[in-house]
Give the backbone structure.
Amino acid sequence: MEIFHQIKTDPLRAFLSLFGVSVGIFVVTLSFALVEAFSKAVASGFDHFGSDMIMVERFPVDSRGDNAAGGGAAERPDEGDSADWNRYAARPQASWQDFLAVAPLTDPSATLGMTEGTTPGMTAGAWRAFAGKADADIYFEGKTMRDVRLLGVGGAWQHLVYSSVCAGRSFSTAETSGSEPKAIVGAKIASELLGAHHSDYSAACGKTIRSGGRNLTVTGVMSLEGKNIISLYATDYAIIVPFATAEAIAGSDALETMVAVGPGAMDRDAAVCEVRRLVRAARRLSPVQSDNFAVNTMEDLCRQTMSLTGKISTAGIVIALFSLLIGGFGIVNIMLVSVRERSWQIGLKLALGATRRRILLEFILEALLLSALGATLGLLLAAMVCALIPATLIKVAVSPSLALLSAGIALSLGLASGMAPALQASRLNPVDALRQ
């Protein structure tokens, strides 16, 4: 095709045309690939923790403000109002008393305080957990690991983490209810500080570490977690201890705490109302007082994450559209120059019997070829960038459907950009064209 001659004679103009299309397709492909990967990661977290998980914390996850269900004069602050966030920060942390207060939802024998019509049978499969986090330094045989995550737990805390105990044992109910000097360590701590090999973490069990002036016996090791988009508590660089032990190590004021409830068979919205009522009663709040806590759900957290992903995707698409627009103008420009420089050839073809439709299709195919070359470069670049992203962070790949979508966008751009030059070429008067 003559378009290759144009590329050779004016490589800079051809490069700029291809560059615009390539960048546009690269950004579109990468944006969609990231959104797809984020969506899968969020869905995985959603499935792991369950959309019905209820969390009592200081701060609301939903930017629309506290959910007013269940009573209390809950307010709906304007998003971005720093005064409201200062008010949230001044709230009391979720306490062990709050954890005990929600027992009627999860313990069939604890019916005291349940609303009329609520029966122990509605709590089938329900659970409750308590956790508090802070940073701490740990020491072992002259070695130090600083700023690891100290996680104090109680109840069914396993529901709050991705990984599970892969070596040794977990805590007993008596241990999480007391202040036993026991610890479960993350996989990275076991390998990097305690010298256990990743194929057998059991070598770390039984060793004694020191944190906050206290000796802790390692009873278990968590499996390697890696990176997760939806993660409440990362465990790779964490030491997990009974909550009372964490208070003794870091101090109660340093711990950011949370009460979590899995409502089981109970309807989630009804469970949210019941959790709110029970916590308000435990905190002795009068009917006219606002909630001094937030009741969040895992669905709120996933919604906020997807909202952020959507904003990033929108920004990427806007940038891609500008790049594609520049690439489209580049294709139009190089095709118009090609029509002008090939007027004599076009006139000769028409004089020898070539139809105007044939000339039209010839130039449209050349425009499609330019856009296809740009799309190929963009797709290859996007695939390379996706391959460079560590799979432990997020699994990103250019799927066949995404590649076809990007190719379709590029070909549509080529068709739209090449139509005007192609029409101009097909409408040339053979006599006038031969005189040029």
Q: What stands out?
A: The chain has 14 helices and ten strands. Residues 67-80, 111-122 have pLDDT under 50 and may be disordered. The longest strand covers residues 127-140.
